[in-house]
User: Which sequence fits this backbone?
């Protein structure tokens, strides 16, 4: 007996040769803050310049942590994930980077 016969979900076949349409530009930007390397992945750099996520590495090259906006539409509710996997909240991107380059960069 076919169990999926009454399944209301529609299956769409995707044509791999189809034009995907306009894709947003994505760039990687790096700078140094308090001796740590801050790397950010930015979407649509010519217009909105919205950060998708960022990483911070210590001066010795070890990961201090990552940061990202939980609300990607508004760029709000920033989150920090330290190298040991602990999650923290941040008021904005500046405070997330500041925490990762100072407080969480020591160990």
Assistant:
């Amino acid at each position: 007996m076919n169990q999926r016969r009454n399944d209301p979900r529609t299956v769409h076949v995707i044509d791999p040769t189809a034009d995907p349409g306009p894709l947003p530009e994505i760039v990687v930007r790096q700078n140094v803050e308090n001796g740590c390397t801050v790397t950010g992945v930015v979407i649509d750099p010519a217009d909105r310049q919205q950060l998708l996520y960022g990483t911070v590495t210590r001066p010795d090259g070890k990961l201090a942590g990552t940061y990202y906006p939980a609300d990607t539409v508004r760029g709000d509710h920033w989150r920090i994930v330290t190298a040991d996997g602990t999650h923290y909240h941040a008021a904005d991107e500046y405070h997330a980077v500041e925490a990762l380059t100072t407080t969480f960069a020591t160990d």
